[in-house]
Amino acid sequence: MYFPFLVLCLFGCIYSKQLSKNFYMSLSNINQSNLKEYLDEIVDKVNHLDFIALDPISIPHRFSVLQDIEISAFFAAMLAWGNRKTIINKTNELMNLMDERPYDFIINHSAKDLKPLTSFKHRTFQTTDLLYFIDFLKRHYQEADTLEQAFYPRTDPQLYNQEKALMGFHDYFFEVEYAPVRTRKHVATPAKKSTCKRLNMYLRWMVRSDDKNVDFGLWKTIPTSELMIPLDVHVENIGRQLGIITRKQRDWTTVVELTTFLRTLDPIDPVKYDYALFGLGVHKGELD
Length: 288
Description:
By secondary structure, the chain is mainly α. Helices cover about 50% and strands about 0% of the residues. It has one domain (about 30-285). The radius of gyration is 20 Å and the shape is globular. The model is unreliable at about 1-20 (pLDDT under 50).
């Protein structure tokens, strides 16, 4: 009785693989001369509010206060590994534990208020990590009005460089003696050759601004031109198929390689092509 079902499943799997194969073959036929036009067209299809319902960026879009947006977006980005539906559900769970007022919770919580949060975990992100994240955010907001200042290089504030900014943020995040060693794996840094996908995505959300209103554009001192591409598996796969990633490794240098190329397409706003590369990777031939 299960045989017809198994046949249908097998047929569906073969058909899906053939569609993917055909899609990737079509990408390899795109000429460099019309690549910008092609990617711009895909950006226009993906970069609009209809596409955010199934994306973690939908979480901060629920808030209106600057600090609430910053904090909810920070957690949504830092928890962004695995299935997107699960990421959204876990971030919503965390916001609910903070009574849907993350900034007020961060600033004014008591030890008693933290107890319900000890049950929260997402994959390897567990109680110790969450409590330290909250500790860091409270210390920061006691000294600053916005998280933007945490991402600005302290060595040379006149010249923004995202690589230096991310290394500086990592050092700042763990500057206290009691910072848990285990939590370091949740905050990436280019100093360890990480792609820093989640932090680059967070910065895209906070810095980019256009008339589509998907990204927030709340931070004004970090130039959009200096943002780096959030390199996940979808972006990487499409970048390789298009021939704009040549390195075999997947590390910070690969991020630099890809972003440098994207700046030749749009020097002012190179990471807008995250929409195209990610969208093509997730939806494959559906966007053509």
